[in-house]
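user: can you give me the structure for this one chain? tokens are fine.
assistant: on it. calling the predictor now.
[tool input]
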Amino acid sequence: MSSKSRTVYLLNYVFLTGLAVLAVNDHFWKEAYGNWWTGKISDFAGILILPLLLKFFFGWRDTLILLLTVVFFFWWKSPWSGGFLALANAQDWVYFTRVVDYSDLLAYLFLPCSWRVLRQPERFAVAVPIKVSLPVTQYALLPICLFFLVATSVDDFPDVGDSNVNCCAQEPVDVMVGNGRVYIPSAFTPDGDGLNDFFQIVADSNIVRIDSFVVYALPDSIAVFSRSNLTDFRVDQGFSGVVFGEIRSASYAFLIEVTARDGTARVLRNRVCALPCPPPVTLSEPRFLSSCTFGNQLDSAGYFDRTVASGETLSCY
């Protein structure tokens, strides 16, 4: 089967509807209505269009296409894909993330729809002249499809430079994720005094999992710390500040994905400053030290409270 004749697997109402739902859900519904359903809709749409995309590219037998879809989706949604994610994300050209949640396998219920289109694609075809179907697919539809399959809906890291001069210029993360609450401080002090030595995530009991926790050294955005599928939020599970065998006073970027008990998942991005004492003698003094927040600034209920004293004087700066 030629590439031109295979365009029917993409230029059909089922594929185009699935792609549109995926795009709208990832870039609007998740941000506006983050809940169990928006967490699942992307999986449903993805499992619907993936067999059709594979059929277009490779033209293999329908049964093989469906088998590969089942195997790939199970691998992607399992901890076994963690090694690939860590390796790919360290390259810093695109960031892949996924939630390990086996209830996502409910998306397999949409495979019969994909099977029907694979068997009778002409019944669902969009009326496009055959002579323009391939150019439309190659130069318009495929780029759009690949963009929405890999693009995320999260914002860029705050632009505060690649040193710690502007440390704590940004607010800490203190947000609700579904029915849970997450606090991520803007600074930590890896000096071994037992006080805020680790960069940590503070979450209430309704946050059930840290799906991914990645810290990047700047300005090259090299991943220097990575954890995944954490359900035990101990302090020592966090970033110690040790990079290439030494502790530096620096600003780092982080990208963290968490999942709440109600199934809501969210990706959180920001900067954090490592402020060990004493600092390197050649280091410029940070300008926003009085705004720094730390992991131990919690009230009696375990929530972030800026008025709670951290015990950090940072007098060495």
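assistant: here you go. The first helix runs from residue 3 to 6. The helical segments are 3-6, 13-33, 36-58, 62-76, 82-89, 111-119, 130-150.
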